[in-house]
Amino acid sequence: MSGFYLALEGIEGSGKSTVGRILAQRLGELGIDSITVREPGGTDLGEELRRMVLHSGHMAPWAEAALFAASRAQLATEVIAPALADGRWVISDRSYYSSLAYQGGGRGLGVESVRRLNETVLDGVLPDLVVVLDVEPEIGFARETERDRIGQDGVAFQRVVAESYRMLAAHDDRVMLLDAGVTPEALTDAVLAIALERRHV
Questions:
Q1: Phi, psi for 107 (deg, rounded to 5)
Q2: Predicted pLDDT at 1
Q3: Are 135 and 14 in contact (CB under 8 A)?
Q4: pTM for this predicted structure
Q5: Edge-to-edge strand list for the sheet holding 34-38
Q6: What is the pLDDT of residue 201?
Q7: Which of 11, 7, 8 has the alpha carbon at shortest distance from 147?
Q8: d(C-alpha 28, C-alpha 190), whole Å
Q9: Of 131, 184, 197, which is closest to residue 22 (Cα–Cα)?
Q10: Segments in the chain below pLDDT 50
Q11: What's the CA gap between 161 and 135, in Å, rounded?
């Protein structure tokens, strides 16, 4: 049996890491084998690229998009595809939908242009379900005490990204939008219910 690839998305401070951690525990309690990954990162190459893209100085928007895509391609080939082939669930803290929202929408590169780049390098290794944890940008931004290069672009940039996520959810059947203004446990319950329903459709 093939696995299931679930991506958690959202702006800075939306709770992706916390929900991912609780979700892995819940899956374990159900006897479902899973792995958790993060983007960018998750491989030796990916971690090097993560440092470059999140902690360097000024970067051209397409250079930023290309580095994210390169890290993502390595993760898909080295980690995600083999896990799915083994029948495991993959819980990903971000996916190429981050690039659609951040670089496509936030940086103004165009969602479809960024989509073409990423879907080319991913070669079919795409999430089965993308759950966007929707939080008001001011709230999410206030939760982040340490900000990387992208987080330093400020709350106005996060507003644009949040709206990009909402547009994606409105037009893409793969994407579900959930209100993240509840407890992490309640949010995880909602994510798990959607994922289990989608897994068996």
A1: -90, -10
A2: 56
A3: yes
A4: 0.94
A5: 34-38, 89-93, 4-9, 129-134, 175-179
A6: 56
A7: 11
A8: 17
A9: 184
A10: none
A11: 11
